[in-house]
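Question: what's this shape?

___
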Amino acid sequence: MTDQLTEVATTGWGKRILNSFVGVLVGLVLFIISFVVLWKTEGRTDFAKLAQKAVIASQSAIDQNAQGQLVSVTAPLETVDLVGDPDFIRPGKYLILTRRAEMFAWRERVSTKTQKNTGGSETTTKTYSYEKGWTENPENSADFKQPEGHANPPPAIRSQTFSARQAQVGVFELDMERISLPSTEPLGLGGGKILLEKTKGYTVTEEYLFQGQGSLADPQIGDTRLSFHALSSGRRATVFGKLSGGMLDPYFYNGEKSFYRAFLGSRDEAIAKLKTEYKVAGWIGRIIGFLMMWIGLMMLSGPLNTVLDVLPFLGSAGRFVTGLIAFPIALTLSAITIIVSMIAHNIIALLVVLALLAGLVLFLKLKKKAQLT
């Protein structure tokens, strides 16, 4: 049975022109939404600045004067609970234990290639290819374009996360259901961590539990491998939250944005990570907003370029010119939107700009008055 299937379809010029008008509507929506994305990106809360204002609380005593305020506590992040995977891992001092279950399965990949023909029609070639690989979420092979010879059995076991019910940092209790904890790390399977009586039939390595007809080096369809990740108790961490009695609760900035996070390491390291997250998310939002605007503008000329496709080289030239024209327009509009949003979301900058505008208006009025006299 071949692991590749190809479909070829041709769309007429008339239908392509009609479809291009739908593209105009999509482009208009993208263009409008791009302004929202850019505006919202600059209006995000900088939690690094918020964290810098947090009261530094002692890990060994409760400061009554800081009640209701945003505080930071740096101390070992601990739990008295024993957390394990009842099917595979012995209970231990973990705040979080995650089982990642992967099955060796068929995966369908679709690649599309289009070719414009003289006369305006377009030929689309779709190639469905099938490959084997480890995946946490096996595809339903019944939905494949060519299910014959690429059947996936249902997964024998699923991924699962186990968490401690109680935890604390220093003398402060944490709400484990609402706090954002640090990422887990790979858990080595040596040192008696495995429940041997429940893992008969599994091959055990330092990294995986394996079960199936093949091996880790040469797996077969339907084989399973399990890996585990954990956040161990006792790691030094910095937690930000609202001090409520002897607990740290979520702190709601401006009454709506929750700040309740734990970071491994010191307060300075936590703030540095927040700064990095803020900058990276900002650039991602700006790039996405710009691309949405640029693509949206190019899609507005879709009908014209489709008409030009009666001679394919004319359509290609039209799209190239459209892209060149749309690029500086999108770049300029994006930059203006970003700057205006920055000013609007920064009260000091907004006051400065308003003062400058007021000064400019006053200057022009005085100049005009002087000319009249």
Q: What stands out?
A: The longest helix spans residues 267-300.
